[in-house]
Specification:
Three copies of one chain form a homotrimer. Chain A contains eight helices and no strands. By secondary structure, chain A is mostly helical. Chain A starts with a helix and ends in a 14-residue tail after the last helix. In chain A, helix 1 packs parallel to helix 6. The interface between A and B is medium-sized, with 34 and 33 residues. Chains A, B, C: Keywords: Cell membrane, Membrane, Transmembrane, Transmembrane helix. Chains A, B, C: Belongs to the UPF0126 family. Chains A, B, C: One of its GO terms (cellular component) is plasma membrane. Chains A, B, C: This is Trimeric intracellular cation channel family protein.
Chain lengths: 207, 207, 207
């Protein structure tokens, strides 16, 4: 088993936890928890596999992924009431899942020999799509679209770091760790210190 | 023609009717009816085919499916005003479509030799995704996410029934019928008697 | 390079502009602009390629597309405040992008030897899906679903025109131009003169 596979496992687990927490805010039943957990957990990676024509899709080849997502859903179903703030837990778990998923997505695209622009896009997409699907389906404002809060930007910087690490000669798994580290550091700083980045502000049209 | 293909035809027809009924609530024009009918009708099955790498996708191989969905859209366009309650018609037709689509999705995944976990997921997904796309695009609250109303749960029980029927030695088409029957019986009971299942209720955090 | 490829380039550029303009209404940061621009630009064509099993997907084979979309996002990020009405600019650019994308989608499906029903659907889908994804993700009312405003209808007429042009013996690129012309003429007339088409109106149930 390639060590890169570990990244897919970790991102599936953490994304599934965020999906189940969002399900708990929508007060679904236990199968609803599992559905949203699985969708969030495998959404980004599935899109990546379809786009790169990697078959069978990772969770069809290895259904353990789904078992992990369902276990995470069950865990949250029985313990979420113990959390002081589910909104906060979602934000921080999502940051962790984002980081790992960006690393998984961009590493695999690089492994398949994709052009560097495609590596960046696959990284950002694998990272962002699972959470985006979760939020669109559950009718929450996507984290991706919160004003002035860097999200896709963190993912992009992480994917860039992976490319730079690769150019510097780091082996794939170390490069993936660098990528996850950079993404998480940026996103966590944004959450902890309220770091923002310049956003578009419309100015009045000239007279 | 395999008898399993009949399930695809039936689910396309019934899902197209629900899509067109939702279009009538959004007061679209006739092409809008056809668009939403086709999206709902083939959405779940298309995702299944892409994930299982079955090409050509069923409605590209056999465009009759689209003709059926468009005919259903036309029928609804000219007759929906005769219904006493479109909301009720949507609920019941959706229950029927869900049942048939779960049977179609899980049978085909089983036929392709997928692991049992994947058969369950494909069944639930083929059943739920068409309606989910319809509701997300038309900006309605997804049936899947209505609190305390079993939806994905019915689909899951149906797919489980298919597996059990297979283990008991039933031929594929009979197993598919058992699956559709179980799904519909559960969903219909939920609609008719207001059956609910335990949902997640947040309790106040401990002091 | 086949001249049909030019259509893909043009539709990517124009759709990216609309995606970035929608991002400016949501006041995202510059990476958010790029994300929404890329999603809108390649959403329809990617779905077309996945459904027709054309690999590598067009923007993976040729990452220039993403560069174009990102350049468009940057351009809008720095100049959108100069527009008098962004809503109007989105509507008209979307009309242009729709026309070109319908031509690209239906030409390529025809080129692959798809049945005429599939050519129509691929044309409408390639045209409508990018904008639909943009609007669903950005939480705007999809242009596709505005009451009484023809949208999918224009796309369908354009795709029909392509088929007719092909039957009359026109070469593929000319047929594509006819298709884009018809689609744009219809959509522009609808926008300029407020042309509507008959929509579904519910009548009271009979007593």
């Amino acid at each position: 088993m390639s060590p890169l596979v570990l990244l897919d496992y970790a991102s599936v687990l953490i994304f599934a936890l965020t999906g189940a927490l969002v399900a708990s805010r929508a007060q679904l039943d236990v199968v609803g928890f599992a559905f949203l957990a699985c969708l969030t957990a495998v959404g980004g990676g599935t899109t990546r596999d379809l786009l790169l024509d990697r078959h069978p899709v990772f969770w069809i080849a290895q259904p353990t992924y789904l078992a992990i997502a369902c276990a995470a859903a069950l865990l949250v179903f029985f313990t979420a009431h113990r959390l002081e703030s589910r909104a906060k837990a979602i934000l921080w778990l999502d940051a962790a899942a984002l980081s790992v998923a960006v690393a998984a997505g961009s590493s695999i695209a690089k492994d398949e020999g994709a052009a560097w622009g495609v590596v960046l896009v696959m990284g950002v997409m694998t990272g962002c799509l699972g959470g985006l699907m979760r939020d669109v389906v559950a009718n929450e404002v996507p984290l991706l679209l919160k004003q002035g809060e860097p999200y896709a930007t963190c993912a992009l910087c992480g994917a860039l770091a992976l490319l730079v690490a690769g150019w510097l000669g780091l082996p794939p798994f170390s490069a993936a760790l660098v990528c996850a580290g950079v993404t998480f550091a940026l996103r966590a700083s944004a959450l902890a210190f309220g770091w923002g980045i310049p956003v578009y502000k419309s100015r009045p049209p000239r007279a």
